[in-house]
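INFO batch 0412 | record 1 of 1 | parsing
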Amino acid sequence: MNALIDKVFKFFHRFSKLVKLIDSKTTMKYVVRSVFGALLISLLIVLLPALVMINMFIYTKLTFLISIFLVMLIMGWSFLYYYFYYKLLKNYHPAIREINTKIPQLTESVFVAIFFLVLGIVVLSVVF
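INFO prediction complete | emitting tokens
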């Protein structure tokens, strides 16, 4: 059990070091550009399937199933957003290309996806 806890602490220590390193090499201007660019690209990708799913709510027998798929789509959006965020950040800052951004990307995506999962469970439990 202690070995698992040590691995988790080492992972989060490595994650925090990578985030601090990335933050030290970026500027506010390029971070804002990356955020807005990633939001735009990821929303455009997710928008069409979301609109199709929302229009399928006319089938009343499949409402719960479609709601679950919609929550999964929103959870997947967080992975898309952070993928494009770090991709754009690497394009703006050549110094970041050498840094392994996969750990912060996946860790932050998982945190946001878990938040959306909990929010989706709460909303679905209230509605149904």
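INFO post-check: Residues 2-127 form one domain.
INFO record closed
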